[in-house]
Specification:
CATH architecture of the largest domain: 3-Layer(aba) Sandwich
CATH superfamily of the largest domain: Thiamin diphosphate (ThDP)-binding fold, Pyr/PP domains
Radius of gyration: 19 Å
Structural class: alpha/beta
Number of helices: 13
Length: about 325
């Protein structure tokens, strides 16, 4: 089954926050001069009185969001992941995470595919940074369907959240029956040859890689993990107990991301071999999307080949 094309997660974000704000006067958006890229320009057009253009001053923007949260607003901070996580980290840590304020930080253009903005704008270690921070929830949805549901869920959640959003249009993995729940993993595909945990838009690639593998007689069990913190430890332990060996896949460095979270959990609770698929300890570069996915080993084809090698070796 080939996945149908879908909207970019950033578009689903702009549309959903705008829709929620129609009924929730607490929602405000703070933009770091990137509204047409992160698509909070959709919100600006609909709710100009609740849209705050903060300019290229990310640390200040996070501080303003913290202040707004203290008086009852639900601020969504919108900028690129590289600016939110790397440039404004001290503000997040001291002003938002430590007092556990109700700020939603959206890291746009996260991962490897940032539209040829240059290596300085690539951020694929953001999950590692944010999940290590106390009080922070980390969410990485797979498609537009899940993104819309995740935004509703984090709006209802009282506390700081980091929402990871990617730039390109993304295939639709889930139908309307899908239900996102904070802290819960989702079985996407069943199989008895290998178990793969994946997160974010990489799950769509693993799903299509599983189709390639099925044609070779390898059946993949695919578990999607949209909430990396808090992690669905029970789902991970249960799958590991059943399979005796698991693989993780992510559009993120293998250091500190989903793979590390799974390995840490299993080392404590049910030690089994864990193979992490993702980006190596490296910085990225600009280039066309497919070429980058191929070079860094996380394309559909490269993912299928890596999983096949692991299965054949066992």
């Amino acid at each position: 089954m080939t996945l149908a094309p879908g909207k970019a997660l950033r578009v689903a974000f702009g549309e959903t926050v705008t829709e929620l704000a129609n009924d929730d006067p607490r929602i405000v958006v703070l933009d770091g001069d990137l509204g047409s890229s992160t698509r909070v320009d959709i919100f600006e057009a609909a709710h100009p009185e609740r849209f705050f253009q903060m300019g290229i001053a990310e640390q200040n923007m996070l501080g303003v969001a913290a202040g707004m949260a203290t008086v009852g607003f639900v601020p969504f901070v919108s900028t690129f992941a590289c600016f939110a996580v790397a440039r404004a980290l001290d503000s997040i840590r001291v002003l938002i995470a430590q007092p556990r304020l109700n700020v939603k930080i959206t890291g746009g253009y996260a991962g490897l595919l940032a539209g040829m903005t240059g290596k300085t704008h690539l951020m694929f270690d953001d999950v590692a940074v944010m999940r290590a921070m106390a009080n922070m929830v980390v969410v990485s949805p797979a498609d537009e369907v899940e993104t819309r549901q995740a935004i509703k869920a984090i709006t209802d959640y009282e506390g700081p959240v980091y929402l990871r959003l990617t730039r390109p249009e993304t295939p639709i993995l889930f139908d309307d029956a899908h239900r996102f729940e904070l802290g819960k993993a989702t079985l996407v595909r069943d199989g008895d040859d290998v178990t793969v945990f994946s997160t974010g838009v990489q799950t769509t690639r693993v799903f299509e890689a599983a189709q390639l593998l099925a044609a070779k007689g390898i059946e993949t069990k695919l578990v999607h993990v949209p909430t990396i913190k808090p992690l669905d430890e029970e789902a991970i332990v249960d799958a590991a107990r059943e399979a005796g060996f698991v693989v993780t896949a992510e559009e993120h460095t293998i250091i500190g991301g989903l793979g590390s979270a799974v390995a840490e959990t299993l080392s404590d609770r049910y030690p089994v071999p864990v193979k992490r698929l993702g980006l190596a300890d490296t910085f990225g570069e600009s280039g066309p999307n497919h070429e980058l996915l191929e070079k860094y080993g996380i394309s559909i084809e490269k993912t299928a080949a890596s999983i096949e090698t692991l299965v054949r070796a066992r």
